[in-house]
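User: Modeling request: complex.
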Amino acid sequence: MDDQTVRTICYLSRLRLDDEKSKKILSDLDTIIEMIDSLSSTDTENISPLYNPLEETARKFNDEIKSDNNKELFLENAPESDENFFLVPKVVD
Amino acid sequence: MQFKTIKEINFGLVSKKFSVEELIKDTFALINENKVLNCFISLNKENALARAKKIKVSKDSHLLSGIPIAQKDLFCTKGIKTTCGSKMLESFYPPYSSKVEEALNAAGSICIGKTNMDEFAMGSSNETSFFGNVHNPWKKGFVPGGSSGGAACSVAAGLVPAATGTDTGGSIRQPAALCGLTGIKPTYGRISRWGMIAFASSLDQAGPICRTAEDCSILLDAMTGYDSRDTTSLNLDPTNTYADLNKSYENLRIGIVDEFNVDALSKESQTLFNESLKVFESLGASIHKISLPNINQSVPTYYVIAPAECSSNLSRYDGVKFGHRSLEAEDLESLYINSRSEGFGDEVKRRILIGTYVLSAGYYDAYYKKAQQVRRLIKNDFEEAFKDVDLIVSPTSPSEAFEFGSKGTQDPTELYLEDLYTISSNLAGLPALSMPHGFVNGLPVGIQLIGNYLEESMILNFANRFQQSTDFHNAKPTFEGF
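Assistant: Request completed. Predicted assembly structure:
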């Protein structure tokens, strides 16, 4: 992975790597990529991807409201909240 | 009460040798005496004792009535802290319970506490937990396996008769093997994932870790069943494996996988494997060589798919609605980045980065799509093999328990190879069990049985018969060095 790719992937992941650790993590990523590169040796022409082991199970259900509004309960776990809202740093001036 | 099975405790409760309250008090005393193992992240003492007072067990009660159970800290438990082994969820109190917790409660069992685990279930040695390493009760300073390391440790040390685990690439079976226990990952979709904190949704599956196959069947039957809240839940009745323990499965054909190359294992491991095959034959089974041509691609396939799903699932941790929030945020973007960078450990970061990489434009086809195509080939290989055999057998893990810090520190893929034998059944969604079958260097090792889809009864029945002919499951840890 070159520096630019690493910067892009870190940003897409919303992660920052500490300077002292980043060298180790980046060398680990290269080792992992080397391992997964071995997949290219398998012939997969005309093989459809298998995204779920039991393909028939991804059922849909009707979009019906089934539970009470547990607003207060859910807000209890919020790092910061105010009445009915999750609080975040200001996003507009 | 230490080292008792569910069946033995149930007998004690029904015959009034002790009460549920005495049992639960004794359990907490045992946990307190064995704190050094670090197998629990939090205890549920007050609630458990209050519940124990209300439970009266008779011969008509469910076999799990009054039984103390340790829940992996990945199952949401209403009002009980649920951390998933991460700083990110250090102070998370779920507003609802998982289906597994609901089901075990309904059966009358008592949640004793939440067990330590690799952070977000990513690891094979329980060394990635924010809450510290868990010791293997067989030897201090040695890993219990992972990611359900605390669960396996709590049962192996005899503190509880049973624990729940989850298995994304071997996280029930490998710790069960390294701690001398029995553990089963059922068919994908058998147990609802509702309220299970997601790692890799197409691979994650819950299951029991116990001392015996018989106890596993009791717990499994209580955990399985359809749940409309999980869209991948199989629309089937709960399993009936306990009743099927007495069923007669004649002339089972058991396959040994050529590509697993058991000859490359240590001499001791090979000897144990061959001796177990002889026991299988004495039980009326026949042994056949089979080939799974694409099985050696399981590890690279898994290390594309699991990180990809993890990078997507863990995007929800942003410091806004729940979980760790950084105090160093100037704007929304830095709130996300700082909260995630402070809240996740190194292994989780590694996997999120790899997952993001394989899903990103330009690499998607070469890695993600390719891995899902190889996954189908692996599944096809199993389907072909199960035309000729009823069960597939392999070692559970390439080696016995190892010392903290001895694997994966220089090269992370060294630790990934711990899951060499277990990963393929997650990719294909097949049920698989590990049970103890001997010792290498004084430490327990396991043998794995993989069955065809929905064949949990056959697997547990055969494991139970193996345990009626052998004594490995009765061995108790020596607590060396403690």
